[in-house]
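Backbones bend. We report:
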Amino acid sequence: MGFHHIALATRDTEATHRFYTEVMGFDLVKVVASPTPNEGDGWSKHFFYDTGGNGMIAFWEIHDAEIGDDFPTDINAAAGLPWWVNHVAFDAPTREVLDERRARWTDHGHTVIEVDHEFCTSIYIRDPSANLVEFCLTTRDFTEEERRHAHELLRDPSPVFETEKGVVVHPPTGPA
């Protein structure tokens, strides 16, 4: 079963909209405006983007005195974690799509990190709220041995480390 959507808060709707339409290439498909569940006259906009696959990403623009307007939007900083831990990964169904996304990102002034994880290849940048976003291309099927080993490794208190096959930094080719 896939995700219907993932939702994150934003303090800058315009920057978020530009990023997810222009840089990510997603389409805005729905905005729901409604009162917040808190007492008072708070309200919100919940806006949804079609990611081009099975699922959406959505954002909250919140106007509520009880919540305020200084809430954290970087999910890693809010959790006290480094920038690379929590992230949203979107599917790249082919190498061509992954390369098109990377070119789109660098054309929009982003430095793109590309990592060959052996079973998949990923590209990464951060959104206007400093949340890490990724496009990931699965490069092969998982073997039965890997599936069996995954259960062992999950419970191993001293796992053997895997190494990345390669990291490439793609500099911006266009203005930010």
User: Anything to note?
Assistant: The radius of gyration is 19 Å. Helices lie at 13-23, 75-79, 95-107, 144-154.
